Structure formats: structure tokens, C-alpha cells
Amino acid sequence: MNTLDNIEVDITVELGATTMPIHHMLRMGRGAVIELDAAENDPLKIYANNTLIAHGEVRVEDGQLRVEVTEKVLRRG
Q1: Where are the coiled-coil regions (predicted)?
Q2: What is the dihedral of CA 19, 8, 70, 51, to 10 degrees?
Q3: If we measure between CA atoms, which residue out of 54, 31, 57 comes closest to residue 42?
Q4: 44: Cβ contacts below 8 Å, ≥ 6 apart
């Protein structure tokens, strides 16, 4: 099992996405709001090494944000 201790996995959680020209992004100031393509109750997308592996939702416990996995994404292969 010691071999598994050294494997690195990049985990990414996506709240939503949008597309905008780079010049709009460069003009944004502190506190700017970016509208995403997701509603507040839509599931988060959870990626491991850029591969979608699960969906989840945000939880707040003891003042800390957490991501709870609600559904694993099965890969067909």
C-alpha cells in the first residue's frame, strides 16, 4: 500500500462555466460578478485529472465549505 501513498491526483470542482472574451476579463475589477451557466441547486462537477468522476453539492459545516459527493459517474469502456 505504500506505493499508493505517492500517487498524486489533481481534483477540480466546477461550480459552473461561462465563455467570455479575454478583453472583458482583463477589464474586470475586484468584486466583479461572472454569471455561470448553472443555477444554485445544480450539481457540482468533480474531476480527477481532468476526467469527470462524480457530481456533488456544497455543504457548510462548522463554518467550513465542503463538497459532498452525491453521485459517481460511471465510465463506459
Answers
A1: none
A2: 40
A3: 57
A4: 13, 14, 15, 55, 56, 57, 58, 67
Q: Which domains does the chain have, with CATH numbers?
A: 2-72 (2.30.330.10)
pTM of the model: 0.76
The three three-digit cell numbers of residue 8, written as one number? 498524486
- Calpha distance 61→77 (Å, rounded): 37
Residue-wise pLDDT tens digits, 23-36: 999 999 999 999 99
CA–CA dist 46, 58 (Å, integer): 11
∠ Cα 51 54 55 (to 5°): 125
